[in-house]
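SAMPLE LOG
Freezer: B-3
Tube label: C17
Construct: single chain, 296 aa
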Amino acid sequence: MHVVRFQSPGGRPQAGVRTGDTVAPVLGVTDLAELLRLTAEEFRAAVAKTGDPLPVGDVKLLPPLDGRGEVWCAGVTYERSRGARMEESGDEDIYDRVYSAERPELFLKSPAWRLVTDGEQIGIRVDSGHDVPEPELAIVANAHGEIVGFTVCNDMSSRSIEGENPLYIPQAKVFAGGCALATGIRPVWEVADPKDLTIDLVIRRGDDEVFTGTTSTGQLIRGLQDLIDVLFVPNDFPDGVILATGTGIVPELDFALQAGDVVAITISDIGTLTNTVVVGREPFSYLATESLEENR
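STRUCTURE (predicted):
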């Protein structure tokens, strides 16, 4: 099962549970934010109470975060990520120190309203020239700092901007279409070992596979609850938070995404995420309009 946000034709977004090819609304709850305000025990009890199921084909699946929810990211948490950052940067030592430091690198990636999901477009900046996807296991935590589930994240990144200066990381990471999440949250109680999951990345250009890569969350050097604990020390997340845990797959420096590329990420036991690349912010102007309409 997956906890989802969905919208029936003419209706408002609501929280639901997807099982196979059906989606059922969670009874007594409207927004996903309401679920993420609950304790982990209450969250599990709430998603066990659902209404009449609908065919998945009759609804629109939305990004699995709403309200005041935010997506954050952890950086340089895999050996491959450390190596890639050192290759692209003129200041190699800083990434080596981040990798081995007691304090993890954490940064704000996206508010809920900017997110895109499976089957939608992802963006690259017009002023970058060298962009790559970053496939990541994402932790879903409730307002109490408890892990309640996992999803798939594509933390899009401009290698040219970050490589120019590490202080440019907000510009390298935060832009229109720069953060995609799979449609579903896999509950934590259904994941036997989140540190033993396979992550696969395939990038297609036309009929060709131009890049493939595989890693395992077993290569992640940080503890999952440890990352959440550090994130919650200075911050409140009243409607929950999603934290992407870093990438262990980075293409070589001679590869860059192009408009029309299709990026497909699969994490075993968690889900899939597939998106097509476009350039610039204009294709994502609809997100601001939709967020206003949802709040009316």
